[in-house]
UniProtKB/TrEMBL annotation:
The keyword Nucleus does not apply. Gene3D superfamilies: Jelly Rolls, Winged helix-like DNA-binding domain superfamily/Winged helix DNA-binding domain. One of its GO terms (cellular component) is cytosol. This is Crp/Fnr family transcriptional regulator. PROSITE patterns: CNMP_BINDING_3, HTH_CRP_2. InterPro entries: cNMP-bd_dom, cNMP-bd_dom_sf, Env_Response_Regulators, HTH_CRP, RmlC-like_jellyroll, WH-like_DNA-bd_sf, WH_DNA-bd_sf.
Length: 234
């Protein structure tokens, strides 16, 4: 039963939701299900790519180690999100490492199964390309945030992605430690602390691993404001 629930999550992932129905079950029947403790490695940069990964529960970070030994967080994925498509299709080595940011469960679809499907069905190929494009679009959005938004605006946008309410007050749980949040947003930990302080006038109060948002619309307005105005309020 657990695997059936996990398969339901995978079916609704960006990677699989556009696949023709007749391919879903055959693909899932070859999937590999794994559980990881927090801090455990899924794979390392430079290892051969095994396939496409779908997060079933918890959080997984992708990161690279720079020549000076510092860690650069590339992205963080959670339930229903996938990664590794482009590398799997090209049978290349992983360009990043993956680590469990929290206890998590994942499903891996072997690369060879996907390549065989692409060779048989052009429609499936188009669906997978669409998923890869969506990841590229997400990276472009992250780059735009780094260039066009203040640190406090990036933090506010991150909090909005965690909200389950469209308006009014909302309380969210920070999904992983603040050092990782800072890395994900292209900031240093001390800059993240300052950004949290700058969000107080926008109705945000941080208490340990929770954020109390007084008004979602007010916070959204803060994100959409001209960065020059945001800096003047900092």
């Amino acid at each position: 039963m657990a695997h059936e629930n996990d398969k339901a999550v995978a079916r609704h992932s960006l990677f699989m939701q556009s696949l023709p129905d007749q391919h879903i079950e055959p693909i899932l029947s070859h999937a590999v299900f794994r559980s990881y403790d927090r801090g455990e490695t899924l794979f390392l940069q430079g290892e051969p790519c095994g396939g496409v990964h779908v997060v079933l529960d918890g959080w997984v970070k992708l990161y690279r180690i720079a020549p000076n030994g510092s860690e650069a967080v590339v992205n963080v994925f959670t339930r229903g999100e996938s990664f590794g498509e482009a590398v799997a299709f090209r049978r290349r080595d992983y360009p990043v490492s993956a680590e469990a940011s929290t206890a998590c469960r994942t499903m891996m679809i072997p690369a060879e199964d996907l390549l065989q499907l692409i060779r048989r069905d052009p429609e499936a190929c188009v669906s997978m390309i669409a998923s890869t494009f969506a990841h590229l679009h997400s990276l472009v959005e992250q780059l735009e945030q780094l260039k066009a938004e203040t640190g406090a605006q990036r933090v506010a946008q991150f909090l909005l992605t965690l909200c389950d309410a469209e308006d009014g007050a909302c309380r969210v749980t920070l999904p992983y430690d603040k050092v990782l949040i800072a890395g994900r947003l292209g900031m240093k930990p001390e800059s993240l602390s300052r950004a949290f302080s700058r969000l107080k006038p926008a109705g945000v109060k941080i208490s340990r691993n929770h954020a109390e948002i007084a008004d979602v619309d007010q916070l959204r307005d803060y994100v959409e404001a001209d960065p020059a105005d945001a800096w003047s309020r900092a």
